[in-house]
Amino acid sequence: MTQSFETTRRWLRRAGSARLEFGADYNPDQWPREVWDDDVRAMREAGVTVVSLAIFSWARLEPREGVFDFAWLDEVMDLLHAGGIAVDLATATASPPPWLTRRHPEILPVTRTGETLWPGARQHWRPTSPVFRDYALRLVRELAVRYADHPALVAWHVNNELGCHNIYDYSDDAARAFRLWLRERYHTVEALNHAWGTAFWAQRYDDFEEVLPPRLAASHPNPTQQLDFKRFSSDALKEHLRAERAVLRKITPEVPVTTNFMVMGETRGMNYADWAAEVDFVSNDHYVLPGPQARDELSFSANLTGNLAGGHPWFLMEHSTSAVNWQPVNVAKKPGELFRDSLTHVAHGADAVCYFQWRASKAGAEKYHSAMLPHAGTDSDLFRDVVRLGDRLRELAPVAGSRRSQAPVGIVFDWESWWVAEHDSHPTDRLRYRQEALDWYTALLNNGIRADVLPAGAPLDGYRMLIAPILHVVPSALADRLDAYVTAGGHLVTTYFSGIVDEHDQIWLGGYPGALRDLLGIRIEEFGPLLDHETAELDNGTTGTLWTDRIDVTAADVTVLARYKTGEQAERPAVTRRPVGPGSASYVSTRLGPDGLTRLLPSLLTPADVRSELPEDLAGRVELTIRDTHWFLINRTDDQVDLTTLDEPPLAPREVRVLHR
Fold first, then answer.
1. Which domains does the chain have, with CATH numbers?
2. Which residue out of 21, 62, 161, 422 is catalytically annotated?
3. What is the number of helices (H) and of strands (E) in the chain?
4. Which of 46, 143, 343, 352 could form a disulfide with 315 if both were Cys (CB 3.0 to 4.6 A apart)?
5. Residue 370: predicted pLDDT
6. Which residue among the candidates 318, 337, 416, 623 is catalytic per the annotation?
7. What is the pTM of this model?
8. In angstroms, rounded to a whole number, what is the distance separating the alpha carbons of residues 187 and 194?
9. Is 161 one of the annotated active-site residues of the chain?
10. Selection from 618, 646, 649, 622 nearest residue 634 by Cα
């Protein structure tokens, strides 16, 4: 990052001491003027300290081309400032107004099948459209000039959830920009042909002008073309972020700039590890996803966000007080979940807890989405919970500004492996990269072990164990880093379908797992994907699904930790470990799921001398996260947990306890 969260977030210094921020997206333009005063009064009652403002207000700010109306926003800014509420002011470029798309339909995105995405929702703009860019930057410039010196302004919020709905655009604008991107990456068309392996299926190009995005084709598009288009699409949105940021920094160099990432679930198109350096502090949106690992997924995402921030505090820009509106079934949160969800983010480094949105909408696509102030108003259980949470965050003010303490275990998370491992024409289309990583995270929590979820480029020093699930894309430089980590005494664990291809999605020849083969001391000639009904039992009592490998041990010092009992690989190795000096390299050749990995982990953790920092009776029931001297104990269960071994009162269902150690 260009600056740290602590030095750029000016509102931490306004009151003379640090605090945890509390607030929401605020959309006063959805409501008549008489509601605004009630909003500010209720915000003060709830303890709101900051709001994100004007995110979807372009049509109100510029009702006609070149005609700007800031009077209403002036009044809102003044009203919030008078109420002691800071403003993270949005550039309002997320949703173009109707007059713009009517005048310039060429800014609308195009799908891979050639369909135009029309107005009527949001994010109906091409990231590579020069026309859209000109109009957007004009609005950004007008906002920056007008509010540069406003005392309520504490940060700029670029666009909103960049790429949520328009990450992949296959228009002619995108095709032109893609060719320029490829020229910069490869310089010559010969180099592109080599990287893409265009000798296959007679795809050789004679000129960059012949290259297109991977639009709907008769069969599987070139896999490296697909990978490069994903890289390009992430870069195109990053360039839009940088373009808006450049305008803001020129006019308001002292005001920090952020944009809200979406580190959650299967949101994969934006390479946030690459984007993190472009913002002054990292912000994230997260919504709980239903399922048996819902709470662990929240923790996983918050953990990864904290490591994208380099350990600095970060800003939880959006989450929900209760139900959302966009899932098939939208269930309200249970008692205690509002607190547990919010404080879990704080435990992983968030110094701001904010929601979509402040007041629940009366109309529009998100009118059934929960808010800090629900349809029922201030006389509601939900609002009373919001007020109590505001009180709790004020009590936790000493936590603000503290750094997350490094965990003993790191889980390597790589966006490009995520993209490529799930491409078409692979051994199986059932593989889910993020789910495998989440399963390892759950298994570590079940064993009471703290872990950091790390971008692949993060420093590896200090981790006693690294787990790199489905690390499919391994350039030689990454292979060298992992080799050096193990040689220096680190303990690496990787899994099926790892080490297979280089940065061009070309196979490392000589047998699998390719780039990691010699380090692991094993060789695999053929993959063994399983059909949906097939399983393979291991002799350690676990059961594999999805995948098996026919492993040949090639190094004399390899130890077989588990063998297959059933299936095509019966009697052959399923889990191996090779000592390398003081370190080791282990391989898990099948999907064991969270329960199977929970059983396997102790045999992998012991050589790395990794033990739970929690008493044995709490491991698995309580998640421990540490920020400097603050220990967060998060009840993972819906039951009361006895804390006698820590000389503490019982932990209530879904409670988060913060101890000073």
1. 5-181+237-399 (3.20.20.80), 409-608 (3.40.50.880), 622-660 (no CATH)
2. 161
3. 19, 23
4. 352
5. 98
6. 318
7. 0.97
8. 12
9. yes
10. 622
